[in-house]
Amino acid sequence: MGVLRPAWSCLLAFVLAAVVVLSLGRPAGSGAAPASDGPLSPVANGSSTTWAKTGANSLWEAVREPACTAADTSNAYTSTPDAPFTVRLAPSGEHVGKRISRIEVVLCYKAGSQTGALFAPIIRVDGAQQVGQAETATATACTELAQTIDLQVPVVRSAATKIEVGALKLPDTGTAWTVRICSIRATIYYEDDAPPAPPLPKVSISAAGAIPATPSGMCSLITRLAGPSTGPALSLPPASLTPAFWVRPLPMPASPCPTRRPPGPVTSPRDRL
User: Fold this and answer.
1) For a pLDDT cut of 90, what percent of the chain falls above it?
2) pLDDT, tens digit, for every residue of 209-227?
3) Residue 261 burial (CB count, 10 A)
4) Hey, what domains does the chain have and what are their CATH numbers?
5) Do residues 175 and 156 lie in contact, with contact meaning Cβ atoms separated by under 8 Å?
6) What is the pLDDT of residue 264?
7) Distance between CA atoms of residues 33 and 19, nearest Å
8) CA-to-CA distance for 247 and 191, rounded, in angstroms?
9) CA–CA gap between residue 158 and residue 80 (Å, rounded)
10) Which end of the chain is less enclosed by CB atoms within 10 A, N or C?
11) Three-state DSSP class for residue 81
12) Model pTM?
């Protein structure tokens, strides 16, 4: 029957301590859904109002519907290249003080009399504009698409933070075609508030297979977990009872932790371990 000597006990405790650190290192809230506001519909015109409108008194009213309806007759439209339009959002006060990380923009759009117009969703946070990926207006009835735009630099939201979303008409290939935005919705996402996990201890093995010196604090923990070196030895099952997949340990180098000797005189070579 194999006997697990004190050096083995210390090494086993070191491995167990590392497993505990790995299992506890994940932030408690990292599995929760990120904080968000939305979906939000517009509440006012934004800083860009160059597009025309139909079926409403103002641009934001033309695109404020909470859902995309194929037969929607109110919309904002343009055929002018590089022309933007934006509407204002009014998120709740719940997340003031948090950092805005990204905004999902949902555009309900359709083409004009001819399909093929190029456009892209845009966001503005306190005047800083970011443009999403280019889209092509191929639908003849109001159709929904969604894009998430990550802020290049997350912004701490205050009560005065101005958040706008909208669309940018892009230059077409040779001809200026019309795109119509039937409605706009957006969801604002915030960074996770959970603190980062503490750094894990670095454990490396040299080319010769020797285990390097262990920090004194970790050795103290390992020694407490391993127990006194004079305690009963941990026994391994006899070879006759071990299953085929049991891997018996190979001879290991010396323990990375100093061995505590029991008080009193050394009486045998085994006590020198």
Assistant:
1) 55
2) 555 555 555 555 545 555 5
3) 13
4) 37-190 (2.60.120)
5) no
6) 58
7) 26
8) 45
9) 34
10) N
11) coil
12) 0.61
